[in-house]
Amino acid sequence: MSTPEIRATSSETSETPAPSAPNEIPAASDGPLVVVGVADTAENDSAVRWGAEHARRSGGRLHLVHAFVWPLMNVDVDPVPGIAGSGLRAGAESLIRHAEEVARAASPEVPVTSEIIDGRAADVLLQSSRRADVLAVGSRGLGRFLAMVMGSTSLALGRRAACPVVVVRGDEATDGPIGVAYEGSDLGAQAIRRAGELAALYGTHAALVVGVATPRDQNQRILESARGLVAETHPEVEVQLADPTAAHDARRLVELTKGARMLVVPARTEGAASASSHTSSVVQYAQTPIWIERADAAE
Predict the structure, then answer these.
(1) What letters, b where the CB count within 10 A reaches 16 and e where it falls short, cover 31-60?
(2) What single string gives the DSSP state of each residue in 184-229?
(3) Residues 204/176, Cβ–Cβ less than 8 Å
(4) Beta strand pairing status for 239-241 and 206-209?
(5) Are 92 and 68 spatial neighbours (Cβ–Cβ below 8 Å)?
(6) What is the side-by-side strand order in the sheet with 61-68?
(7) How far, in Å, CA of 62 to CA of 97, rounded?
(8) 55 — phi, psi (to 5°)?
């Protein structure tokens, strides 16, 4: 089955301004590009605020994307004759304008652009990830798409995206540490480096979570290794060991990271020495944003 064509659309109404056009996205020289998928869910504002704050801290810019699926279903999206502001496309325009307002209220200094793209959410966001430094989505109301974020199939966004993916849950404004789930792999090392980078960016420390599959007498060696990885680029960042008693399942891992500003997990797991082997469940239970580090995303 072929993938539907994805095309950008702009909206034109007589009463309100249209969302920003795709060609208004700031150039790469203007700093990292944070892309947020905009959906009609209660959690969407949290994702937008997270994106705006991350763009502010990283000296970047924010781009909001809404996937407009209805044209693919041959549904009439035009306004009802004689009723201003009606119709599915008008609703999408209203949704993206609201997201822009939320972003500007959260971080007024951050450049914000937006676009509405015809297509399925997964296709649209995968395409958008190719130009992004990080892609953020809300945690609920995404139906099959959320399953794709953490699924084990080849279509999982966490594996196919061209950048890290953040699933925003809980309180995105906490002042806690950056948690990172230890995994004995190259991707696990990449995740630790990412946690150090984020800790430096947010002015906090990194908290390393080691799973029970790892012998406890290895914890200090693992901690020193993690400190070495972080010190390569951010020697000022302190790395601590989270409660070593157990991270034997997703719920326990979530408990260990309560109060964390973010939890960094590898997009996939390798080996038995992993605290993130239930990553999909972590997203289900966590009350903090989950940064999914994808292989080679840091390159």
Answers:
(1) bbbbbbbbbeeebbbbbbbbbbbbbbebeb
(2) SSHHHHHHHHHHHHHHHHHT--EEEE--TTS-GGGHHHHHHHHHHH
(3) yes
(4) parallel
(5) yes
(6) 7-9, 112-118, 61-68, 33-37, 134-138, 165-168, 290-293, 262-266, 178-181, 206-209, 239-241
(7) 14
(8) -65, -40
Q: In whole angstroms, what is the distance from residue 168 CA to residue 140 CA?
A: 9
Q: Can you read off the two tokens belonging to residue 8?
A: 């950008």
Q: Which two tokens stand for residue 39?
A: 């959906």
Would you put residue 153 in left (φ > 0), alpha (ψ -120 to 50) or beta?
A: beta
206 neighbors 238 (Cβ within 8 angstroms): yes
List per-residue pLDDT tens for the chain, 299 residues long: 433 333 344 333 333 334 334 435 555 557 899 999 998 777 789 999 999 999 999 999 999 999 887 566 566 556 555 554 445 778 888 899 999 999 999 999 999 999 999 888 888 888 999 999 999 988 754 444 444 444 332 334 666 889 999 988 776 657 889 999 888 889 899 999 999 999 999 999 999 988 766 777 888 999 999 999 999 999 999 999 886 554 556 666 667 667 889 989 887 643 333 444 445 556 566 778 889 898 765 54
CA–CA distance, 185 with 154 (Å, rounded to integer): 20
- pTM exceeding 0.70: yes
Pairwise CA distance, residues 33 & 31, whole Å? 6
Q: Which two tokens stand for residue 240?
A: 């601590």
Comparing CA positions, the residue from 56, 65, 82 lying closest to residue 25 is 65
Answer whether 62's CB lies under 8 Å from 166's CB. Answer: no
Distance between CA 44 and CA 16 in Å, rounded? 22
